[in-house]
Structure formats: structure tokens, C-alpha cells
Design a protein that fits this description.
The complex is a heterodimer of chains A (about 130) and B (about 110). By secondary structure, chain A is an all-beta fold. Chain A is built from no helices and 11 strands. In chain A, strands 2, 4, 5, 6, 9, 10 and 11 form a 7-stranded mixed β-sheet that branches. Chain A has a 4-stranded antiparallel β-sheet with strand order 1-3-8-7, with no helix packed on it. Chain A is globular, with a radius of gyration of 15 Å.
């Protein structure tokens, strides 16, 4: 079955970096993109960015530009999200999600949403 | 980009219909009919309920429907059931993606 399995919980100190993995199975990894979404305790969903598993193109939320890097390893069908210079307000559950956008000729867009989600990875930033 | 605006809470009795609004701008919701809706139960990952404004993924109940008018998208849940009690988020594609503020649905 189609699934995304994320790496385990992390505890980091302020100023450190964290790298979360998201391993895909059950579908052709390079035919889709991956979005990363986080949710701080008791708060709503925040989109962090998207990466194309086909060509590695990325699109990051402006708020996180310069601190986040998203990559993929097509040999293992795994996506990664690295967040640097961690602060206490980066404490959150981090999700990866399969995310397909198709921009056809003449500027027609087809967006299939984030249809498969990982189980979430809790990242705690604390001194 | 600012979060889309949703009501903090909506409630209804079993069997009733409720509608959740999602207000954006002419740069996001108004420009693209690419709004998706997600249901999230406590402690769980979100689940896609609607994409491209009104389309349901396979397996999602036809009690869930989506629409759009101008800069506002809406999710309607008809025949409300206890299992529909959850948080709901809209999300608009606009080059990037932007989520709504979230709505807690309570089944009375």
C-alpha cells in the first residue's frame, strides 16, 4: 500500500539542526512531490515547503527561507527536511505528505492535494 | 503569505448540515480553483477530504462537498455524524501553499 514512514522523535538544543526523513513506498516516488508541514503544540498546520522528487526543484515558505533545506534520494525513495538554527518555537510535529501539482500547457493547473501523509515526527527544541 | 481565514468553531447536531468557510484573497483562493480540505482528528495526521475545490478522493464520503465563490471557499458536511467531530483545514495553492487557520467541528 502507498505509505510514507518518517524517522523518530528528536530532541535538540537551541541553535542546533535537525534532519527528518520520509521514506515512500507503494508508488513511483519520482512521479510526485513531497510537501513538509508542521504543527506546533495546540496550533494549526503550517506549510514549510515542497520538493519535486522528479527533478529536485524546491519551493520554500518565505518565513523559513535560509533555514530549511529539502532534498530527496531517489535510490531509496526517501525525502529529507533539514531545519537549522533551531529555536524553541520550532518545537512541533513535522509531517511529510505526497503532493502533486501539474502545470500543463497554456498555464492550466491541476492540483491533487496532499493525499498521503506520514505519521509525523515530534521535534522538541529545549535547552 | 498570510493564513486563510476560517471560523474557529462550528457545531451541529447529528443529521444536520454545516458549512465551514475559508476566506483568502484574489491572489490565492480567488485566482485558482485549487483549494483542498483536510480533516484532522486529535493526535492523528491530516486526511485529504476535498481537492481542486470540489473533488473527493476515492474513499471519502459523499457527505463532504466543496465549493467556491470569489475569494471564499466552503466545505459542507451533510448528515453530520459523531465521527465528523475533528479539526478541518483549508489549503490554497498559489504558487506556494497556504493553510487556513483551522475550524473545530463539534457534533452536539
Amino acid at each position: 500500500q502507498v505509505q510514507l514512514v518518517q524517522s523518530g522523535a528528536e530532541v535538540k538544543k537551541p541553535g542546533a539542526s535537525v534532519k527528518v526523513s520520509c521514506k515512500a513506498s507503494g508508488y513511483t516516488f519520482t512521479s510526485y512531490g513531497i510537501s513538509w508541514v508542521r504543527q506546533a503544540p495546540g496550533q494549526g498546520l503550517e506549510w514549510m515547503g515542497w520538493i519535486s522528487a522528479y527533478n529536485g526543484n524546491t519551493n520554500y515558505a518565505q518565513k523559513l527561507q535560509g533555514r530549511v533545506t529539502m532534498t530527496t534520494d531517489t535510490s531509496t525513495s526517501t525525502a529529507y527536511m533539514e531545519l537549522r538554527s533551531l529555536r524553541s518555537d520550532d518545537t512541533a510535529v513535522y509531517y511529510c505528505a505526497r503532493d502533486l501539482i501539474i502545470i500543463a500547457a497554456a498555464g492550466t493547473y491541476y492540483y491533487y492535494g496532499m493525499d498521503v501523509w506520514g505519521q509525523g515526527t515530534t521535534v522538541t527544541v529545549s535547552s | 503569505q498570510s493564513a486563510l481565514t476560517q471560523p474557529a468553531s462550528v457545531s451541529g447536531s447529528p443529521g444536520q448540515s454545516i458549512t465551514i468557510s475559508c476566506t483568502g484573497t484574489s491572489s490565492d483562493v480567488g485566482s485558482y480553483n485549487l483549494v483542498s480540505w483536510y480533516q484532522q482528528h486529535p493526535g492523528k495526521a491530516p486526511k485529504l477530504m476535498i481537492y481542486e475545490g470540489s473533488k473527493r478522493p476515492s474513499g471519502v464520503s459523499n457527505r463532504f462537498s466543496g465549493s467556491k465563490s470569489g475569494n471564499t471557499a466552503s466545505l459542507t458536511i451533510s448528515g453530520l455524524q459523531a465521527e465528523d467531530e475533528a479539526d478541518y483545514y483549508c489549503c490554497s495553492y498559489a504558487g506556494t501553499r497556504v493553510f487556513g487557520t483551522g475550524t473545530k467541528v463539534t457534533v452536539l
